[in-house]
Amino acid sequence: MDAGLLAQYVMNGLMLGTMYALVAVGFTLFFGVLDVIKFSHGDVLTVGGFTALATFVGLGALGIKSSPFVLLIMLIVAIVVTAALGMLIARYLVLPLRTAPPLNTLLATLMLGTVLREAVRLFYPQGANPKSFPALLPTDALTLGQFNLRLDNVLMLAAGAGVIVGLQLILNRTKLGLAIRAVAQDEETARSMGINYTAIVLVTFALGSALAAFAGIMNGLYYNEINFGTGLLLGVIGFAAAIVGGLGSIYGAILGGFLFAALQIIGAVMLPFASAYKDVFAFAVVIALMAWRPTGLIREKISERV
Amino acid sequence: MISKLNSGASMLACLMVVAAVATAEAKDKVKIGFIGPLTGGNSNIGLGGRNSVDLAVRLRNAQSSSKYDYELVALDDECKPNVAVQVATKMAADRAIIAAVTHYCSAAAIAAVEIYHRFGLPIVVWGAVLPDITYRNKYPEIHRVNGMMINQNNVNAELVSGLGYKTFAVIHDTTDYGKGHNQYFNQAITRKDGRIVGTFGVTADQQDFTAELTQIKALNPDVIYFAGLTPLAVRIRAQMDKLGVKSVFDGTSGIVSEAYIQGLGPLAEGTLAFLEGAPTEKLPGGKFFMENYTAQKYQNPPEVYGAFAYAGMDLILNTIEKVGPDRRKVIDDMARVKDRDSIVGKITFDDHGQNTVAVVTKYVVQDGKFVEWDESEYASGKRKLLVQR
After folding, report:
1. CA angle A40, A45, A46 (to 5 degrees)
2. Which among A132, A280, A283 is the top mutation candidate for probing chain B, defined by the most B β-carbons within 10 Å of its own β-carbon?
3. CB distance from B269 to chain A under 8 Å?
């Protein structure tokens, strides 16, 4: 295979992997603190993307055109809105179901996801149609044979990596991170040590949802298109990535995200039959991996021993 | 003297009217049918079709030269296969009904085809586009005036090969729609000495096409042919730009929509697409049809397929006038329809009853609109497609 072509595939895979990893990290965060699976995560991402788009349209109406400034405002608004949404979901849906079987939380958030998705479809003007997402990053491109390296992709990759590193720093180097890890490890003990349990859960959900908003905007900038169903498949893939990596482990989620992206690319490029089966291939490998390592590739460090 | 003459003339006029009414009453009554979605999500198209058929019957009954007095029986298939089977059975079992214009929805039409064949009721499909309706079996009862996938892809292949394009990459969704188009485009372009360099099936909700498009970029085709619907088309076209793929984007009827333009903005420029039928006013008899339709003051517009329903009914009425109200004779005569003029252009049925010269409109996106190819600046040479040779 031509080196330029190979580089192009690697670049495509890195972009996909970053988005998957961002979503997977959200799943892992929620599972870490509350042991719940929040299936509406993908649709929160959609809400983030559409909030950003609405902000863009609003700013355009006000006559503000400067790309970096507009993008910054879009990021802030989308992150604030989804963080608030995440907290609302945690406070009024997930926490009340705390004592119910985990399956109920899973189902309730699954249904909430449908509500969010349909709300975007029905209430965003002509929300059923795919929407053009503005290209706000510089689109200069470097062409090396078959390889088309675009500056906006490089910037997004760097920003995605930065966000993941930032999250790591928050979790490992701050008091807030310490509290989140404490709650994740043992809720009772954390409470008795004076940690405000509810507040930590809400902050974690806000954090995870903000990541989704970031991924939503990145998705929009990368594809220059968003639609009400964007989050559905991303949610499923992010969840699968989190499981395969090892639910509860941040590194596992990142590894899972990039692994899934690599599998999809391999499925589309290497397999002799049509690319229609690339998702089938990727998910089949995930199933095989789950059978091989049921607790994920990277095991949660503290697993309950019975 | 003058007043006497006047009264004489008016008396004569009165007599003539009486005579006309008398002959009208003396005409035999002949029933013909219509089936379409009169309720539900597609009812606007169904009601437009019903009105158009009604118009054909009214115009015919108003002609003093017509031999019969026609009565229309209209039934509702709700666009559902199970309902279509019931109403088709009801209509076909009524021997008083000689022929019918039936079905807009492919799923309804394909379910009812067997019934028309079993009961020997000649029908003309007025809107459904699935090839199987006419081509799965060789039933003499079944005819279709509108075009379908095969016509569409023939027209497509003719245009792109005429523009000098030789190599094609195909992306199709894996539904019946996408697979069908892939098959017929493949046949049509191969006949035109075009070469398919790669075929990529994709799922109907896929988001990322960079892997497929990177492969296509390496194959460097003149044209990317896409068989699928708008959402996927928007993503693929946008991602083509991201990867610097410079091929012409050539779509099917599934992407002719406002949403395609909205989703892409300036990137939509130069996209090709094809649609069975044509805007009513552009059809050969479009003006005549619209004037008469408007004069009847129907509550709903005829919609895109109204003219086809009218043409189907008109064909049936012509045939009954010629051979008499007998299902068998109508079927035999309809098998010989060739180069027949109608408001939707010529009608020629092949041995499957399919109109082979059905109108297909070619479109290209120009300045944020789907413009008819022949009227576009691309056809006149003022603008060039990405790799127009």
Report:
1. 95
2. A132
3. no
